[in-house]
Design a protein that fits this description.
alpha/beta; Rossmann fold; seven-stranded mixed β-sheet; two-stranded antiparallel ribbon; 9 helices; 9 strands; about 35% helix
Length: about 240
Amino acid sequence: MDKTTQAQSKYYKDTAERYDEMHGHDLEHQYAIRIIIALSKMIGARSVLDVGCGTGRGLLCFLESGLSAQGLEQVQELLNVARKKNIPAECIHNGVAEHMPFADREFDVACELGVFHHIRNPMPAVKEMMRVSKKAIFLSDENRFAYGGTLRRLSSLILCKTQMFNYAYYIKTLGACHRYSDGDGVAYSYSVYDAYDELYDWADQIFFIPTSTKKSRKAWNTPLTNSFHVLLCAIRNRFNA
């Protein structure tokens, strides 16, 4: 485990007991959860996997909605908090998103709520979500392309399209390639759009829903460069619900 991973693990351990209090105001994910539940029921999904379920806030919402829900989390301290809630023990699993302990196509739906911007390379986790889910994948997370002023947003797009973003971010962060805050711990530059190419081949339909609490600017390119929080919805077999 490298120093950055150790720092993030320590952050979760130190904040586990007050994590819900610290992040209970994350309205973006609360909004995303309601959309995920509605769309899951629309396509006839009955089971959902919450990847990186943390203290079980999202998992509990899925269970209360009538879905058969399971949660996967690698930080034991967060799982300890989840187990204190009204969540059946068999619904909570200890494991990592990159190597999920589940069978192929075991779930109708797989989702993540603000987890992937804490993973240095989320693509193995995305591929695991593609493996274990049958009907849909939902990513509720950050979108780097909507951060900062107009010039910065356009620069991020251009750098990513020319495959120069990682080099630029390395220089900007003086080699750290991540940021750290007392409110979020270790975080990497991330956008749900990063998973588009992989999910395009897996899904029949992909669409994006802005979930930022602030109203997006009036522009044709919302949510790409106008919503810092976005819900990516990848739907498969939508006509065979």
